[in-house]
Amino acid sequence: MHIKIFFRQFFTLLKESRKHQIIFGAAVFLLVVAVFLSTFYIRGFAPKARGGEGESKLSQEDAQQNQNYVLPQGIRLIDGMPVEEEEVNRLPLGVMIENLVTVRPQSGLSQANLVYEALAEGGITRFLAFFTEDGDIPEIGPVRSARVYYLDWASELNAVYAHCGGDPYALKLAREYGIKELDQMYNGSFFWRASDALAPHNLFTKIESLREAVQSKGWEDKGSFQPWLFKKEKELGGRGAEVRDIVIPFSTSSYQVVWKYDRENNQYLRYNGGFKHIDKNSGAEIAAKNVVVQYMVAKLKDPGDIKGRLGMHTIGGDKALVFRDGEVIQGIWKKGSREERTRFYDEKGKEIKFNPGTTWVEVVPPEKNVTY
């Protein structure tokens, strides 16, 4: 009864006041707009984040599927390979490795489980290679200095981060983040200098030394990260038949990367600066089961820095290309925070599954014209 009286008085007042009519009409209009925009966002048409072209939201069904995904027993979490149970979830050992022309070929890269390659400064790229097995890797390097954005990739794997000095800001952040940092400047016993090269390009380590470091620091030799999704690789008949080379022009021809598809073995073979990229330890050509091109904004961290150190937008999202089985999947990447694992999604918003084996992530500025 009170409600009826209220509305009767309200509309009587509205009829008697032109001013109130205008206010009422404006309120109704704003309410309609608010409802429309809410629906607009809920349906996934919200404005895209910077560089998020082609981005689509995960449906509830896909999100639930990804959340419930569980690797089969006996599958290594970092790369999806079948292993003995004690090898399923070892602590990843990350090592910064140089790619200056004069230090090639590097040692140990062919045996890494996961490798990130990104520009450092002066158009030169640098690698962050992760190892989790105890295979015979007698030499890894040359080991070089830390950079800020590599900390974010080490963080998402909660990995050991082995390096030699670095950008002062990166060193400061590594301490603040509580990263399992292994800086040669203070942990020299786990590294050595080779006599056949000049410093600073002659620093090396090995798996045995890194495992000793983990034990001496009291770090638990167990991984603490969310794995990617893995699938069974395609049989020969289902693989891409006419596959063009993946060409990544990081800077000059000396730092152009080419991946050539080997259909029979379902892998991509790496060329570095126009030559086959081999491992100094064994002479083996570096290969990957999956190659990811992760587009990421890179700019000078400080315009006044005479060394030209870069900063990168590691958190957020942008376009991505995932190459596997002789095919390419166009999609996006997302990383919500420093410690959150980077995820890759196809154009329908479904998380991409990788082939078991080594993955190389090529972090490329959006203005670079990658061809494939």
Tell me about this structure.
By secondary structure, the chain is of the alpha+beta class. 21% of the residues lie in helices and 26% in strands. The chain has six helices and 21 strands. The chain has helices at residues 2-16, 18-42, 60-68, 148-156, 168-177, 207-217, and strands at 93-98, 114-119, 125-131, 160-163, 180-183, 192-193, 203-204, 229-230, 246-249, 256-262, 267-272, 275-276, 287-288, 290-295, 298-300, 310-312, 316-324, 327-335, 343-346, 353-354, 359-364. The strands form five sheets. The protein has a ten-stranded mixed β-sheet with strand order 5-4-1-3-2-21-14-17-18-19, with helices on both faces. Strands 9, 10, 11, 12 and 13 form a five-stranded antiparallel β-sheet that branches. A two-stranded antiparallel sheet has the order 6-7. A hairpin with a 2-residue loop joins strand 11 and strand 12 (275-276). Helix 1 crosses helix 2 (18-42). The longest helix is centred in the first third of the chain and has 25 residues, at 18-42. It is globular and about 50 Å long. Mean pLDDT is 85; it is low at 1-7 and 9-64.
Key features of this structure:
372 residues; alpha+beta; 10-stranded mixed beta sheet; 5-stranded antiparallel beta sheet; 21% helix; disordered N terminus
Element layout with pairings:
Elements: H1 2-16, H2 18-42, H3 60-68, E1 93-98, E2 114-119, E3 125-131, H4 148-156, E4 160-163, H5 168-177, E5 180-183, E6 192-193, E7 203-204, H6 207-217, E8 229-230, E9 246-249, E10 256-262, E11 267-272, E12 275-276, E13 287-288, E14 290-295, E15 298-300, E16 310-312, E17 316-324, E18 327-335, E19 343-346, E20 353-354, E21 359-364
Parallel strand pairs: 1-4, 2-21, 4-5, 8-20, 14-21
Antiparallel strand pairs: 1-3, 2-3, 6-7, 9-10, 10-11, 11-12, 11-13, 14-17, 15-16, 17-18, 18-19
Helix pairs in contact: 1-2, 4-5
